[in-house]
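The methods section describes the discrete structure representation at length, but only in general terms. An entry of this sort, consisting of the sequence and the corresponding backbone structure tokens, reads as follows.
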Amino acid sequence: MLETIVRNLDLLKGGEITENTKIDVLLPDTVDGTHVIDYTVSDCSELDLTLFDLADGDVDLSLRVHMKKGASCRVNIASICRDGKKKIFSVDTIHVEGNTFSRTKMAGINAGEGTLRFIGTSDVRNGAHGSDTRQDGRITNLSPGSRSEVSPVLLIKDDEVDASHGAAVGAYDPNAMYYLMSRGLTEAESRRLITIGSLIPVADAFYDDGIRKEAMDALEAVIL
């Protein structure tokens, strides 16, 4: 498997994936401009991309993945949006040919009166029999002034496919808060644990142990 670590979106060039590829992206600094990245995954190849965004600034990223016969892709994105910032993540998975597979998971924390949007499309083309696609997105709002959107779209032009999506936007789950506080945690401790916990699955998707630890350390520093 080809493994790559990226710390700057300008270095994420896209292109054709001809072998199984794992890309870890950690954005600890400011990100400038709009980024449009296109990948084509060749027959029976795999693309696994994990992006963890802690940038103190605006982000506008559009990722498009075209899959040929038997190809697959997994996209995991986590983002923290601070007060007054605007972050948009768009992920389109295009199933061009049959027996393709995609999973998109996006998790976010809107920590103030900023804008955080998770959008994207699962596009299954006519003739892409046996394809399997799912999108999941969740944003936790920490402020009444948080502006958040999770909008997955399914464009299905073939009958013999599995396609689904899930979306959630809101404040802390009161049941989770009650459970943690009933176990002796304070309200602040419970909120912090839920906040960090919502992004841990994305950090766990990193293949590199050093990047995973760096992401978790940066996340805890932001939440403190």
